[in-house]
Amino acid sequence: MGALDVATIKRDFPILAREIKGKRLVYLDSASSSQKPQAVLDAMDECYRNYYANIHRGVYTIAEQATAAYEEARRKVARFVNARETAEVVFVRNATEAVNLVAYTWARANLRSGDAIVLSHMEHHANVVPWQMLAAERGVELRWIPLTAGYRLDTSGLDRLLDGAKLLAISAMSNVLGTINDVAALTSAAHAGGAHVLVDACQYVPHVATDVRAWDADFVAFSAHKMLGPSGIGALWARRDLLEEMPCFLGGGEMIRDVRLDGFTPNDVPWKFEAGTMPIVEAIGFGAAIDYLTAIGMDAVRDHERELTRYTLDALADRFGADLHVYGPHDVDGRGGAVSFLFEGIHAHDISQVLDEDAVCVRAGHHCAKPLMRQLGVPATSRASFYVYNDAADVDALVEALAKAQKFFEI
Amino acid sequence: MPGLEDLYREIILDHYRSPRNRGELPVPPAHKAEGFNPLCGDEVVLYLEIDPGTGTVTDIKIAGQGCSISQASTSMMSAAVKGKTADEVRRLIRAFKALMSIHESKLEGEDGDGSDLAADLEGVRLGDLEALQGVVKFPVRIKCATLAWNTLKQALDEAAAAQA
Asked: Taking the CB of the first residue and of the last residue of chain A, which one, N or C, has fewer CB atoms within 10 A?
């Protein structure tokens, strides 16, 4: 596994030096939220200590510095996903808010009773519930792309599903199955039928070099906290012409150009969607996280995670055979590093509990994807997920802890 | 630091591996209630049959799926309530929640003054259920243990409403 110098990277993450119950912390839950390198902590600390002030308001030195750092972070995000221009990036709280922003503005301005939205069975609740709320309010029809037995989108009926649809809202990478979807092909099919495309890229942007122009998407949502940045900040990338014509979302300070007693004029994009004091320091931390990932190189990140995922799938199969079932594709070229699994006869919650004895952190539950869990016919799975700071030793610790759990429950 | 043996007592694993009173009852006369734990996706489906004359639980059946703690708690609960009156069952629910360090009455003003809790629960025997006490040391698992009991209360409320 030579793509990354993980031993050095691990030292950049203070939390990974921590011991739990006398054991080295083995963090395998980055698909839920990632840990933060010293560089991100330092960038945020530096702002609070040296130049913190509200942005876009004061004319004094530290206000100008804070504003410049905040807008520089936006440029970093824009470059990271290959946006055409910085103004295409709107800062939001997280990917969930990005999807809701589109649902409340673009979708409510453009969809009416009888219109259809196409989703898939592998969507996270963040890309399901905002559309269900719209469907209930407007009488919009929701259509679903099913899955194949190999845990991929079954696109055999895609043209029929897209026929007359106004929007395709689709995950780039499943947070449960790890499946990577062919977004460019889906976008092309959707556009051919006249539908817009929203990409939930929350699991994709942190792990794979992302090019929103190559995707030819209309909206792309992602969160900083899953890509080494702080919680409380994320981004909506959208085509500029769409942002221009979309109605405002939250009203308040900063999102206006002028306010009179009889009304207001909205600010330019992207600020017209950034009402109130934004998470300034979090945006700066987001920028620092992108610097860190860029220095490693996203191709190296992807190569590393592909190798680690292959190592994991092989190790689980070798050690547990048919007792452990992996829910997701086995071809590591078409999947990311979120590995969901179940032991025959042991609930995911119990697995997690036993693993915690060895300071191995995995997620247990429905992963905010209950429609998918129903399709899979399971109430919950365990999920190990990887990032730049994980290595084969972490996977070995997982396998040993799982063997203990298996013995404990005597299956 | 609490250990696994505090949580997974032998009697709990026994109920998990061999759950009691699994099945369904015809509705009506039985009352059906469903409980979900949104945290982990666990579900409990409970069928409760109460004799309208005596107010006694004559039969109970359990369906659903979940972790060892939720399944063991459900199984042990089903064994504990059979033959008890609805009032006795309600007191048992309060006693179990107290065991889980949940004192809802104090917070929500439900069931009158919380200071009466001790008097109210005097003489309530938890028996095997006390094996679940270790769950308190694992706060995220308390919801697993109480799922069945919240569902039971729901079933009792529905039964009472149907009689009224």
From this structure: C
pTM: 0.91
Contact criterion met (CB below 8 Å) for A80 and A291: no
What is the least distance, in Å, from the CA of B1 to any CA of chain A? 8
A interface residues, B as partner, C-beta within 8 Å: 21, 347-350, 353-354, 357, 364-366, 370, 373, 379-380, 408-409
For residue B114, give every residue at least 6 positions away whose Cβ sits within 8 Å of its Cβ, in sequence order, or none.
B103, B105, B106
Is the bond preceding B29 in cis, omega lying within 30 degrees of 0? yes
For B71-107, the pLDDT digits (tens) are 999 999 999 999 999 988 998 899 888 888 876 545 4
Nearest by CB to B67, which of A347, A370, A408? Answer: A347
Residue A36 in any domain: the answer is no
Let me know whether A285 and A307 are in one domain.
no
Query: For this structure, is A368 an active site residue?
Result: yes
Cα of A362 to nearest chain B Cα, Å: 13
Q: A229 and A40 in contact (C-beta within 8 Å)?
A: yes
Residues A150 and A267 in one domain: yes
Q: Which of B39, B43, B68 is opposite residue A350, by nearest beta carbon?
A: B68
The verdict on A362 and A217 lying in the same domain is no
pLDDT in tens, A126-143: 999 999 999 999 999 999
Look at A365 and B41 and tell me if their CB atoms are within 8 Å: yes
Q: How distant is the Cα of B141 from the closest Cα of chain A, in angstroms?
A: 9
* Cβ contact, residue pair A379, B43, below 8 Å: yes
Chain A, nearest residue to B64 by Cα: A379
Residue A115 lies in a domain: yes
**Domain interval for residue B122:** 4-163
- Residue pLDDT, tens place only, A57-90: 888 999 999 999 999 999 999 999 999 999 999 9
